[in-house]
Records
---
Amino acid sequence: MKKSVLIIVCVILIVVLGIGLNRCDILGSSKKLLEKVSKEPPKATVCIDAGHGFADVGCESPYLEGYEKDVTIKIAKLLKTELESRNIKVVLTHDGKKFPSCDEILKGVNKYGLEYDSTRLIENNNFSAYERVIYANVVNETEPIDLLVSLHINSIENHPELSQYELYYYENNPHAAELKELCESLEDAFDNDTKTAVTAADESYTVTRYTEYPSLLVEMGYATNREDAQKLNSEKWRKEYVKTLAEQIQKFTDKY
Ligand SMILES: [Zn+2]
């Protein structure tokens, strides 16, 4: 009698242990599969530059909540999340909290022998557009950038009626033709939302001027226009906006 009880207990133990081990195996292999999926190398690298920041607040208006820099960093972070969900690697020129010193930037430009104008690198509480683009060029040496996107908000005095998005790329960028195509597809994608003006800009636009890789400056509306500012203030609109932007960026990086 005791012997048979012992045998039954042993059988139950073997069955339970067997199921347990199998379960571990199933969990283990599905975990491995998940790791494999998430470890797929990113399809491209996009550098997002939140326009302004720190002592440079950007534009302001009675309609906009906070300064331009407060809204551009929020949209930059949303765009980062959206692009990462599409397996695109994102680097930010800054996160709104800290930025590299001129010394750090100089170390990088010297290491890689990059061109720069030392008189435009100034150590202060301001990460200027020039410093941001030179920093992006340093990053590009170890993390080749497929596209730089600089996010801004426009403003104009005495023209509260003016409402539009604006896209700028440098007319002499080696990828000007591809950038033009990207701008046109963005223009179509934003068609239902707001009128979009595309400009092949001259040398006066810093972030688009000093890169060899594709670079795009996006003006996401006018802070001085009540409706544009209302959109920019809205988290819901910002999420929709970055989705449209990310969709077209993904098409661009898939193609080029
Ligand atoms: Zn700006």
---
Amino acid sequence: MSIIPAPKEFAFKKTLVDVIPPINFLTHNLYSYPAKFIPHVPYYTISKYLKQDNSLVLDPFSGSSSTAIEALRLGHNCICIDINPLTNFLTEVKTQRINFELQQNSTGDSKSFISINKDRKKCGTNNIYLDSFMEKMKDYSAEFFYPNWNNIDHWYPEEFKQLLARIWGFIYSIEANMPADFMNLTKLCTLYLSRYLSYGARDVPKLFKSKRRIQQLETLREKVSKNPEIPYKVFKNKMISYYTQMKSLSSILFEKNIFPEYEFTLNKSLLKSVDGDKRKIICLGETDVLSYDFPIENEFIDLIVTSPPYIYAQEYMRSTKLDLYWLDLVNDSRVRELTKKELGNKKTTDISIIMNKLRNIKTFISISQILEKTERKKYGKNGKYVPLVYNYFYDMYLIIEKLHTTLRKKGEFGFFVGNPTVLGHLIPCHKIFCEIFQDVGFKIIEIGFDQIISPRLLKGRKNESPQGMDAEWLIISRKTNL
Ligand SMILES: C[S@@+](CC[C@H](N)C(=O)[O-])C[C@H]1O[C@@H](n2cnc3c(N)ncnc32)[C@H](O)[C@@H]1O
């Protein structure tokens, strides 16, 4: 195995402060996705290693698509793969080039809240009058939308459920005749409101109904009963602030003359057709990267950048459940099916097969012996953690192997990972992954750490499962010819 360079401290928030301001940068903060990237990681990797405009970036665990935002604004195309069906919506919302002005007043015309610029329909600017839009929303009384979820009553008091069912009903009733960029903004704000009015705790991404939260919601119910305008005010404020963030990305895309185009399947001819100002954003949500068969020839991708799921973290689908149901993207059986495919949540592969595949990964072998011993002591033969950890590294090995074939020769792979604690032992993921990358046929060209300021995914977890991380590691490797 080749030599690994000495680790450096990236301190991204300091070193990149001139290019990435600390608050609400572009559209990165539009949605609080669990274990979201800091934008610095995709920015750093893409801008340092992709020298040719209009290249192709892949994020195989794209989550809320931080990578796509950075790839697009730097002039590249991006493939976003994730098992979570929410990914397609978030990718589009966060990368869209908006074509409307949000006017905060009303039209004065009770019939309409939108004026479409007919002369310049293709690239002209529509006007949306927020107050008029909200009047329509408040007056709506036709078909309500109730999520197809048995458990919905567990998460809402009746009056809030009815209010949301009315707002979502209104959104779905106008959607077909409205510009998609405006509807995306509206849905995103309604998702925010749907969490705001729910029993789901707001300081942890996981869906969790705490006593404290129940009390908070009781107070809110009382306030809303006296002042029914409160939810609408929350919605309106979000519309304005999210619009401003969307506008900041759109201005960059406008200046650079970049037009994103969205595709929901991947094929080679699609990518060939990318020309001039267009950039393809390929949204492959609801896709298990482990079983996905890339329908493109090998050595096609120019750069990969990603942050993988944590070991034993089934949080992503669960955290986003309210949103998935309000957006009508899933039903109960689909959620169960997809959750089973979430990495870090499986224990199906035979341990001897795993050990054979990972036989050269020395750090894994030594930590696995320690974990097994601890688990046996604590739980006898019935421990559940060790099989999850084994399966996790095995699956990740297979994925990295597959991604190696899709990457062009000498292409780079940026991998951002933390070191969790399992059964009281720190798992040196950065070392294990360095060895996996090398075993698969990569050369490590850069490695370093960055302090975690707010590890949101990890809040509220029990001792046994991954926690205690205070730094994450960026490993950049290059495909070599084995
Ligand atoms: C650490 S998060 C990525 C967050 C992302 N970098 C962002 O900025 O939002 C890891 C992602 O891996 C996804 N994931 C888990 N298992 C997967 C699988 N089998 N195939 C594809 N994606 C998977 C999760 O849904 C989650 O979105």
